[in-house]
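Students often ask what a holo structure prediction actually looks like on paper. The answer is less mysterious than it sounds. You provide the chain, you provide the ligand, and the output is a string of discrete structure tokens encoding the 3D arrangement of the protein together with zinc ion.
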Amino acid sequence: MRPQKITISEVGPRDGLQIERRLLPAEQKIALIDRLSATGLTRIEVSAFVHPKVVPQMADAEAVFAGIMRRPGVRYAGLVMNARGAERAVAASVDDIKTGIAVSDSFNELNVRMTTEQGMRALGEIAAVAKGTRSRIVGGIATAFGCPYEGPVPIEQVHRLFAQLAGFGAPVIYLADTTGMANPASITRTIESLRARWPNQPIGLHLHNTRGLGLANALAGLELGVVDFESSIGGLGGCPFAPRAVGNICTEDFVHMAHEMGIGTGVDLDALLRVAAFTQEAVGRPLPGMVMKAGKANERHDKAAPRMKVD
Ligand code: ZN
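The corresponding structure tokens follow.
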């Protein structure tokens, strides 16, 4: 069931940058997004239409959308949490309105100050705003594999949210391991349970590497034929409401793994590695991406060159 080709949605400019302390100017974000779209990536999460007081890094969502080059074949996404955000996103002509909801009340209240129930009503309002516009709804279920405050999440609750998002005709619904609580077995269990009820609804994975299981969890998804993945350039990111969270799985490390396994991504890995270096420079801190440090597995090294001693 392992796919021959997958689609990677780059979430670094939004999910990644939103927790960075250094506020990047809009021009730098635009430069990052234009560089990312030049690598062959066809899905890019550009910004979030949320209140600027809550997420100051995303206050320039309109300016960033207006400044980027819209490359044909690339879908540009904006995160939205309520009807007001959806109106802004539609006005900015976003291709994909990304919206979602956390399975657990505790997490949802911290994240968007709504209970899961209120969040589900907000989803209905967002869908109503998007209806008949060029913007389509892409769904996400946060803390789908566990909540740091409530522990394991009941699968029935995941089903309930999935049913609502599927009802909006979401082309793909991402299950998010927001705080890195999934493992390959729970990924398999959850996807199989959803597929048993919704055999035709595409399911994607949004994984974090909080406990080092990011790529192992991605592999579990690949073995089940999952073709939609979200990841972040350089491994940028984390979550302001997840204790000690580290970033998303790293885009270039994941592309490297896929290519080594013979799975196509349509992405130019060398170009992507250059964008990772650019991103690291822009945020001014070392990023966790590993291939940008070690080089690709298929690179051959010069025996005569000085090298590290290996014990
Ligand atoms: Zn995330």
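Residues 7-294 form a domain with the TIM Barrel fold (CATH 3.20.20.70).
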